[in-house]
Design brief:
Strand content: 25-35%
Distance between the termini: 22 Å
Number of domains: 1
CATH superfamily: Bromo adjacent homology (BAH) domain
Structural class: alpha+beta
Largest sheet: 11 strands, antiparallel
Number of strands: 11
Shape: elongated
Low-confidence stretches: 216-220
CATH class: Mainly Beta
Helix content: 25-40%
Number of helices: 6
């Protein structure tokens, strides 16, 4: 049942939209949006139960990576701190619990095919951003993620620009599906409270489609 739900909520549209006539694809898109809105409302109703069972938040699973081999962290530390004890000032981790959800990083050797490292996040301007978590690290009393950012290509609703349903779809579809460039462009240093969701990623020839998923409460 969970496999069918996941296909319906997350995979149906990105997988099949290119193989359908645009209005038929738009019909499916409207259906998927309706299902996801209903699912989100159920999540809100059940959120109190989740809050009552919160796990300790923060980074865990210290890595053996040396900060001296990670130029992005060295340059960041140089900008924010004047100490010469980089190896003890910054501690690197493979995993992190954020809002009761376990996130992995690309540095985590046991992640295998699990994609819990590609995320939706935000910044101080409240932009919606996406990227792959390279690692987690702590600095003083803060926990951050080093994220390789994938820029937006264009709105997913543009796919349905020639459809008579384009106006209706635009109100909802761009909340659930995002079309991004195929390659990352820059690194961001993101406080973990600004990480919002894990995403499912669908790779196309020259772009990727991502869709944020509702929290799945793991037990690892």
């Amino acid at each position: 049942a969970s496999e069918i739900k996941n296909l319906l909520l997350y995979g149906l549209l990105p997988i099949f939209y290119q193989h359908l006539q645009v209005d038929k694809a738009a019909h499916i898109a409207l259906f998927v949006c309706a299902i996801r809105i209903d699912f989100a409302l159920q999540k809100i109703i059940n959120q109190q139960e989740v809050d009552n069972g919160k796990r300790n938040e923060g980074a865990f699973d210290i890595t053996r990576l040396s900060i001296n081999n990670i130029d992005e962290l060295l340059s960041w530390h140089k900008r924010v701190c004047d100490c010469n004890q980089t190896a003890t000032c910054i501690i690197i981790y493979h995993r992190c619990v954020i809002k009761n959800q376990t996130y992995h990083s690309l540095s985590y050797p046991k992640r295998q095919s699990t994609n819990s490292y590609f995320v939706k996040y935000t910044n101080d301007r409240r932009d919606t951003l996406f990227g792959a978590i390279e690692l987690f690290f702590t600095y003083k009393n803060s926990t951050l993620a080093l994220i390789n950012n994938y820029p937006n290509e264009h709105l997913f609703s543009d796919v349905f620009a020639s459809s008579s349903y384009h106006s209706s779809l635009s109100k909802y579809i761009n909340t659930y599906f995002y079309l991004l460039q195929a390659k990352p462009s820059s690194f961001h240093y993101v406080p973990i409270h600004k990480i919002l969701n894990i995403c499912v990623v669908f790779e196309k020839d020259d772009f990727i489609i991502v869709t944020p998923i509702s929290p799945v409460y793991e037990h690892d």
